[in-house]
Amino acid sequence: LMIRRPPRSTLFPYTTLFRSVRSEGKVLIGEEIPETETFGYRITHHKMGLTPNMTTKSVQFTDRFTLEKSAEPTSPLVFTRLLADYKITAFTDLNGKNIPYWRTASLLIFPAPKAEKSELKLVYSGSVNHDGSDYILENEMTLNSYWYPVISRLPSTLRLTATAPKGYTALTHGEIVENKTNPDGTTTLTFENKIPICYFTFDMGKYHITHIKKDGIDLYAYLMGNHTADKVQGYLETASRCLQWFGKHFAPYPYTRYTLVETLGRFGGALEGYSFATFQRGALGATVHEISHTWWGGIVPCTYLYAMWNESFANYSDDLFERQQQKPTPPSEDQLLAMRKQFAKSYSTLPVASPGNTENGASNAVGYGKGSQVMRVLEEEIGQEAILKVCQGLIQNHKPGSAAEWADVEASVNRVTGKDYRWFFEQWLERVGVPQLRFADVKTEKKEGKIVVSGAILQTGKPYQITVPLLLYFTNTTQQEKVAVQGERTEFRFEVKAEPKQLRLDPNGTHLLGAPDTATEDPCVFRFAGGKRQEI
Questions:
Q1: How far apart are CA 206 and CA 93, in angstroms?
Q2: At 314, phi and psi to the nearest 5?
Q3: How confident is the model over 94-129, as pLDDT tens digits?
Q4: What is the Cα Rg of the chain in Å?
Q5: Which of 122, 105, 124, 147 is nearest to 17 (CA)?
Q6: pLDDT-derived band of residue 3, with 50, 70 and 90 as boundaries?
Q7: Has residue 4 got a pLDDT over 50?
Q8: pLDDT confidence of residue 14
Q9: DSSP output for 92-143
Q10: Across the beta sheet with 478-485, what order do the strands follow?
Q11: Strands (E), 185-344
Q12: DSSP letter at 183?
């Protein structure tokens, strides 16, 4: 094995492993060993102690973690990742016997125990200050990268005991199982999270705390900035509504409390914590998205090493919830054209099935954007009732302790529908770009006292199979039909009661159609001779 230390990433500073290759008496760098490589080991549980020192801006950790052989080991060494910021002061088994280890950048390497399952004790400490992730400031701190030993980001359970200085409140995943105030004014809290998850976050600060209880769930706002009482109440009401809706339509909410945490540090956007979420200043509008991660990333974990399917689900869940609260306004023709140009441009470089890097713009575009819109296309294809069953089935058939991928979503769709939807996932997840459709040879004719509209829909590029709504606009009314588009050319023919003024494909913009960047008119709109530009 060879090790290379790349420039530090702001969120996950880590070292890259490569296989060594001998050639002509020299040792050269061979192929990269991906982070998905476990060498046959995984960590299944962390029992942690955490004591921050706000004066020195440092943290002391104790982690008694459970290491298991998950497969036939392929190495006598265990490779874990732990931030290079932390200095190890002790590494032992539970009998106090020292374990030899090698520490290089953010790798912690040690000989594999002989037992199938072992508990090891790691004591370490350090100071962190990373843009967008770990930092300790005067009145708050947050930890959310590799601040504990990690193997391939595989899900694990957590029990964490933290001692917060006087005036500070600590928070991490799960339920509070112990809570005591010490004689010196410090507070010791123990949290237990029995749901195996891929990422741990710890927050602590001098928060302004607001609490309400609705429908049996304790809701908290831990805020650092200034907010009016009405705004805070609005944040908590939104949290309550979506927790209840997701709990009813996906699976019951698995915790007794949920907390919205605000940070004023150099934090990147918002971050889910399943029983809480952390928001930078001004980001509390993402509450519904982050809460939906309780199900998509929490109950059903995602490693982000292959794809970010859970971000697609979170964006889609946010949209689905909002549509239940208020009927959306259809986009104007100009808005539709702008959307379609953006789709064609933003989704032209990466397929949805591949990106897992949330720090990359192209990955984010398809992971958050296109993926969620593909879920909406799927809803239009199989119906909302069926897609809710798909979500429920994804949870019910998930094996705790494992991480899910898009293949699990596809399997759930097949179970619910009783059909093979490989064609759907191939075209939407494994290809780059979006379908681009346009009208051709459209005409009206009168036959036997009836008016018939006919024409064709052409596809540019590799054809998609997609059923698209077609709206016919008349002087005082509209008529909607559906066209099953397949191949490069699809014919359509409809009987109507009057001469139409305009035809529009996908009038609500739900089917992820694209348009050329040079288009001045929407190719999915056709106006008959004399027909004026009109909104529907």
A1: 37
A2: -65, -45
A3: 999 999 999 988 899 999 999 999 999 999 999 999
A4: 27
A5: 105
A6: very low
A7: no
A8: 58
A9: EETT--B---EEETTEEEEEPPSSSEEEEEEEEEE--B-TBS-EE-SSEEEE
A10: 478-485, 466-473, 502-505, 525-527
A11: 187-197, 202-205, 208-214, 217-223, 257-263, 270-272, 276-280
A12: T
The token pair that represents 484 in the structure block: 């099953």
For residue 76, the SS3 value is: coil
The tokens of 332 are what?
């104007």
Q: DSSP assignment of 302-319, as one string?
A: --SSS--HHHHHHHHHHH
Instruction: Give pLDDT, residue 360.
Output: 82
Dihedral angle, C-alpha 434, 435, 438, 441, nearest 10 ° = 170
On the 0-12 / 13-18 / 19+ scale of CB atoms within 10 A, 265 is buried
Structure tokens at 525: 């709109």
pLDDT score of 280 more than 50: yes
C-alpha–C-alpha distance, residues 514 and 340, integer Å: 4
Q: What is the pLDDT of residue 308?
A: 94
Answer whether residue 7 shows pLDDT above 50: no
Q: Virtual CA dihedral for 137, 143, 148, 153, nearest 10 degrees?
A: -150
Label residue 449 by pLDDT band (50, 70, 90): confident
- By C-alpha distance, which of 258, 27, 75, 273 is closest to 173? 273
CB atoms within 10 A of CB 204: 26
Phi, psi for 399 (deg, rounded to 5): -90, 115
Cα separations (Å) of 272 from 200, 201, 296, 403, 490? Answer: 10, 9, 10, 16, 44
With beta carbons less than 8 A apart as the criterion, state whether 393 and 412 touch.
Answer: yes
Spatial CB neighbours of 285, under 8 Å, sequence gap ≥ 6: none
Q: What is the mean pLDDT of residues 453-465?
A: 95
150: which strand partners? 81
Contact 120, 91 (CB under 8 A): yes
Q: How far apart (Å, rounded) are the C-alpha atoms in residues 190 and 162?
A: 6
More confident residue, 268 or 41: 41
Q: Which residues contact 287 (CB under 8 A, 6 or more apart)?
A: 235, 238, 239, 242, 260, 277, 279
Kindly report which listed range (379-383, 401-405, 526-530) carries the lowest average pLDDT score: 526-530
CB 283 within 8 A of CB 268: no
